[in-house]
Design brief:
Length: 254
């Protein structure tokens, strides 16, 4: 009998003395009943399948297999399928675990022929004294121009938009043809790209920014992290030392 070979003699008493329903339930719920190092429940079900298959082959197809051959065939097939199943589950667990990758974030130069303007803005409170700053650099990282601006009371978002407008205006006047504008304010960039109603509190400055972008040049709006926007952040904070107004910087401040 196939089960006598599959189940170790130490487990025979428990294995062969259940009612049929309890026998099925116990074997698919308890991994300690068999002589299998992996999942006994899976192995048990597969042995059952191949016992039924070989029985049907004999009854309906006239295929007779000697008992010893049938036992070896059934246990080999069940073992093969369980190992494939456990291997697939193991690979799935490995694939489902996200790989943690550390990435250094910093300013990156644009491609040849492009300039990049980084802008930032902030307010001492929300609202409060608002400032903005920005820097334009070429593909070699050379300083093309910069600005500091202190323009009065406003929100942090208004300061971000003000910095973007001033950065675009300076880049246009400097003769940029292909420009990447980087800001660490995703909200400001989203507002510029979206259609906003004329009653929006920042509709005027948003309109000015969109008109600048629509000039005869190519402008890309790109979000960056604070770590990639350090110079613009410093210029925005440095604006507090200036009187009210916007000041163009031909050279990096010392």
């Amino acid at each position: 009998m196939i089960w006598s070979k599959v189940v170790p003699s130490s487990c025979h008493t428990a294995f062969f003395n259940y009612s049929f329903e309890d026998w099925i339930s116990a074997n698919i719920a308890d991994d300690s009943l068999g002589n299998w190092k992996g999942s006994w429940a899976a192995y048990f079900c597969l042995v059952m399948r191949y016992v039924w298959k070989t029985r049907n082959d004999k009854a309906f197809n006239g295929v007779h297999i000697a008992m010893s051959t049938r036992q070896n065939y059934i246990t080999a097939k069940a073992t093969e399928w369980v190992k494939v199943w456990e291997s697939a589950n193991s690979n799935l667990e490995l694939c489902s675990k996200p790989t943690k990758v550390e990435t250094l974030i910093g300013w990156t130069a644009p491609t040849t022929g492009w300039w990049k303007v980084n802008t930032d803005g902030g307010a001492q409170s929300n609202p409060g004294m608002a400032t903005a700053g920005g820097v334009i650099r070429n593909c070699y990282g050379d300083w093309i121009g910069g600005f500091c601006s202190k323009f009065g009371t406003g929100s942090a978002l208004l300061a971000e938009l003000w910095g973007i407008m001033q950065g675009l205006n300076l880049a246009w006047r400097k003769g940029a043809q292909f420009l990447i504008l980087e800001s660490d304010s995703q909200l400001a960039l989203d507002l510029i790209k979206q259609r906003t109603d004329s009653v929006h509190p920042y509709s005027t400055i948003l309109g000015s920014i969109r008109r600048l972008i629509a000039q005869s040049w190519v402008v890309q709006l790109v979000h960056t992290y604070r770590e990639g926007n350090i110079v613009a952040d410093w210029l925005s904070k440095h604006s507090l030392v200036y009187p009210f107004g916007t000041y163009e910087l031909e050279e990096p401040p010392t």
